[in-house]
Amino acid sequence: MTEKVFLRPLPSALDEQSVVNHLPTVVESIRRNIAKIGERNPKIGTATHQWDYCDQFDWVSSFWTGELWLSYQMTGQEVFKNSAKLRKSYFANMLLDPFWLDHDLGFQYSLSCVADYKLTEDEESKMMALRAADHLIHRFRKIGGYIVAWNDTHPLGPEVTLGKSIIDSLQNTALLFWASEITGSPVYANAAKRHSETLAKHIVRDDFSTYHSFNFDPITQQPLKGETFQGYADDSCWARGQSWAIHGFAQTYLYTKDEQFLTLAKKLAKYATDHITDDGVPVWDYQLPSDEIQYKDSSAGAITAAGLLLIAQCIEDEQEAKMYREWGLYLLQGLMKQCDLTHDERAVGLLAHGASFVKVGLCDNMLPYGDYYYLEALMRANGYQNFFW
Ligand code: GLY
């Protein structure tokens, strides 16, 4: 039994059935957009709810592909599979220039090649995903016990980035756990678990808020300090970062069955639900001063919802699980009421009001990762448990 962690009561009424019943509408919206999106990979929404598209190596390049594969898994309709398969050459080409690869290999290859292998037994995709896992494990620093997130070409400069771990990579470790399952070699899973332990120690604060990143000395590997890149301040709590941690540590629990990770995911979820505004859609940073513009981040809401529902699926105690499930549904209800675009036939994405990177002006857009996790969360709300993580 893990430690029980109680969440505050829901701020207002939940209509569970309407949330659960929304899944087919979302899948239909994805189907409707296949022809418009074609072979391109959505990057960020425009003011008219169209997409700007990814160049090569973009960390967001796989989320639309992930939506297609999940829709195929649910419906068996070839149109989803065929469109997802069209993207294989994009992911094959990316592996040809390892200089540009970074820790986001986990996002990129779990939702594309791992998904393809799991659903269609495509051997070529399996080998591509294993190759990606090999690149990812080379970023693991054995002395420091963490995965280096970015490359020396990052604007922060090599003296910082070569010793930098970031919270997002808790999602990327799924590729390593999968590689251990496929190859029978524990080295990938060991690195993934150690990375999670290191981040649990350094990136999570005593009150269960989180830093966006934690720096190590690139030479000695000594822990240095937490800081932010996309959050409001080094000591604030970037909402999407917190959501990566909630979903990521719950996922580490799924793979390792080590209860410390589930307990931690619950405490991080408690911090988030304690700080989410009562409308159920998070402001982009949980410690944003009240005199700043309170942009919402629907992607943080969707990832947190998926994480809460994943936690609920991991908890044995029925009453405790119900609390996490209801909070997950409540966040989905908030997204449905305030951000959902499925009623708009011209919109090529699912959710408005995502905050990609507020400090550079990307503060109110559709985001493909918001859309992907919205679908994942709605599927979890309907009892699905098979994903590509
Ligand atoms: N992985 C970067 C982000 O969450 O914006």
UniProtKB/TrEMBL annotation:
A Pfam family it matches: Glyco_hydro_88
Superkingdom of the source species: Bacteria
Keywords: Hydrolase
Keyword Magnesium: no
Keyword check for Mitochondrion: no
Membership in a protein family: Belongs to the glycosyl hydrolase 88 family.
Stretches that traverse the bilayer: none
GO MF, one example: hydrolase activity
InterPro entries reported in the protein's UniProt record: 6-hairpin_glycosidase_sf, 6hp_glycosidase-like_sf, Glyco_hydro_88, UG_Glycosaminoglycan_Hydrolase
Protein name: Glycoside hydrolase family 88 protein
